[in-house]
Amino acid sequence: MNFICFLTVFLFFSCTLTQPTQPTPEATGTPQNPSPMVEHTRKHLRLPQSTLEGRRAKLMLGTLFVPQKLKLKSPTPLLFFFHGPPWIPELAAAHNGRIAVVSINIGAGSRVYAKPFLNPKFFGNLLEEAESKSGVRFNPITLAAWSAGCGAIRQIMSTPEYYDRVVNTIMIDGIHTGYIGGKPGPVESQLEPGPLEIFVKLARDAVAGKRRVIITHTEIFPGTFASTTETADYILRQLGLQRRAILRWGPMGTQELSEVRSGKFVLIGFAGNSAPDHVDQLHSLTEFLNWLK
């Protein structure tokens, strides 16, 4: 998928599953406010697309990739990555050197990514198929998603039998919800809490050291539904945590503006309110995986 396709997908990255009191953007089809498709204040670095050597196996959903240099043994760490072209998580897995990856890229909108996992057995069946075709047991399990792919993480982690099996989660600029009353502001926006409950639970357990959780966000303001900045602020309020202002370069030439680190919980705020800033986050996956170390 080329860069222009990424920008097209960007326009549809609303993210809500649980039906709150007010209709969500996802339920009503409400589009976000237009976002600039170009940005010239800094370079937006992109990974060179490549086809890596390794073993691939088609699954009932997505593709399992085992990098050529990874020696499979039980247990082997496994990454599930949702949304974006498979070569990016495959490249991240190869750079990591210790994990296999299942890449799932099935369209636009978080509801598309959540739908397969409404069946509580589906994720377990998918994992079993990956293990059967590779001949090893996978552990630990990491879920990572960019943009709309966070809908899959929300649904999978809302199923109790998978909550303890999955020990790492990475949500990349993709946690959204609706506004109570249907619009923001005028001072502190009131967010629909339902779609955020599982992310609060994950973050709280990470603060307690029970799992690793990474959340990133940009400054993009969709307007018709809550931004990733607003949802991050909501999660922090529930945990009683505060941001620390910073100013430094991040992965792929991004600019970090704030951070929260507590226990095994990491939340990083990045500069940028355009589509290229959003895509920067996807191309930073390799570095985000390194943060798990």
Structure overview:
With 293 residues, the protein is an alpha/beta fold. It has one domain (3-291): Rossmann fold, CATH 3.40.50. 31% of the residues lie in helices and 22% in strands. It has helices at 3-10, 25-28, 87-96, 110-114, 122-134, 150-157, 160-163, 197-207, 228-239, 275-283, 285-291, and strands spanning 54-58, 63-67, 76-82, 100-104, 138-146, 166-172, 212-217, 244-249, 255-262, 265-270. Strands 1-2-4-3-5-6-7-10-9-8 form a 10-stranded mixed beta sheet, with helices on both faces. α1 crosses α10 (275-283), α3 runs parallel beside α11 (285-291) and α8 (197-207) crosses α9 (228-239). The chain is globular and about 55 Å long. The two termini are 29 Å apart.
Give the helix/strand layout.
Elements: H1 3-10, H2 25-28, E1 54-58, E2 63-67, E3 76-82, H3 87-96, E4 100-104, H4 110-114, H5 122-134, E5 138-146, H6 150-157, H7 160-163, E6 166-172, H8 197-207, E7 212-217, H9 228-239, E8 244-249, E9 255-262, E10 265-270, H10 275-283, H11 285-291
Parallel strand pairs: 3-4, 3-5, 5-6, 6-7, 7-10
Antiparallel strand pairs: 1-2, 2-4, 8-9, 9-10
Brief characterization of the structure:
By secondary structure, the chain is α/β, with parallel strands linked by helices. Helices cover 31% and strands 22% of the residues.
Q: Please work out how many helical segments DSSP would assign.
A: 11
CATH class: Alpha Beta
Q: Pairing-aware structural class of the strands and helices?
A: alpha/beta
Please name the CATH topology.
Rossmann fold
| N-to-C order of helices and strands | HHEEEHEHHEHHEHEHEEEHH
